[in-house]
Write a structure and sequence with these properties.
single chain, alpha+beta, Helix Hairpins, SH3 type barrels, Alpha-Beta Plaits, five-stranded antiparallel sheet, four-stranded antiparallel sheet, 8 helices
Length: 276
């Protein structure tokens, strides 16, 4: 028993003798444990909300920030001659300014990436349109977002540009409108064409009944009457309507024996309505 007490006393004297060193070690150890714990919490909270690569990056950043704080506290405890915490902070602040100016675009993209994860204007799997780049979101990183276009190629968009620019999220739309314009000659029955095209669109299961499809003349050209057909569909059947609508109109016009011509574009719009 006496031997055990002597050993404990020697250990205590050693701790007293090297108090600063033990304090610094404890400070770093606490920082390591706290960083690991918070990193685990971040991974659990963000699981299935953001991409795994983004979760990993955020967890690492938080971990190293906590570790740096622990190292700063350890240096303060050690009280090394010639090295003070204020001097380290000044040097670190100066270095931070230099690095920040050099990496300003990267920092802007990083901050924008955090804001995108917080606001969540889109998620992986959504179809978006950014400055004419239309495709499916495949990755949301801390610095950039990647989309896969309908043609199959990948587009990398810096987060800062994505966050500060207009963005269309097609997947968030409960209903979408497709508009097709076509021209028929003057001598044909306009009312008949309008009624038959509208009936044809109403027969399609993916076309909404409310609001229902509408067909109307919009302009008289030199070669005939320009007509516009409009039909709404739910977001998940939009491409079906987008691809089938010209063929449906063409079928009606052929059955009526009406020659026609199409413009080069098919216009689409979104609307936040309930699919009925």
């Amino acid at each position: 028993m006496i031997i055990i007490l002597q050993i404990l006393e020697n250990i205590w004297n050693l701790i007293i003798q090297f108090e600063n060193i033990f304090g610094a070690i404890v400070s770093i150890a606490i920082a390591l444990l706290l960083g690991k714990y918070i990193s685990v919490i971040i991974r659990r909270r963000l699981h299935e909300k953001v991409p795994p690569s983004t979760i990993q990056n955020v967890a690492k950043i938080v971990y190293y920030i906590i570790l740096l704080i622990g190292i700063a506290v350890a240096i303060r405890i050690l009280n090394i001659p010639g090295v003070t915490l204020s001097e380290l902070l000044v040097a670190g602040g100066f270095a931070g300014i230099v690095i920040g100016l050099a990496a300003q675009p990267t920092l802007s993209n990083f901050i924008a990436g955090i804001l995108l994860m917080t606001e969540r204007p889109f998620k992986i799997g959504d179809f978006i349109n950014y400055s004419g780049n239309v495709g499916m979101v495949v990755d949301v990183g801390l610095l950039s977002t990647k989309i896969q276009s309908w043609e199959g190629y990948y587009v990398r968009i810096p987060n800062n540009e994505l966050f500060n620019s207009p963005l269309i999220n097609y997947s968030n739309s409960k209903a979408r409108l497709v508009r097709v314009q076509f021209t028929i000659p003057f001598e044909h029955d306009l009312k008949k064409v309008i009624q038959e095209v509208q009936n044809k669109l109403n027969e399609q299961w993916y076309v909404l009944a409310d609001p229902g499809p509408v067909v109307f003349p919009i302009q008289f050209n030199d070669n005939g009457i320009l007509i516009e057909a409009r039909a709404w569909t739910s977001g998940n059947t939009w491409f079906t309507l987008y691809s089938q609508m010209p063929s449906l109109i063409e079928e009606v016009l052929k059955n009526l024996g009406v020659p026609y011509s199409y413009p080069r574009r098919i216009l689409t719009e979104d609307r936040d309505i309930i699919n009925k």
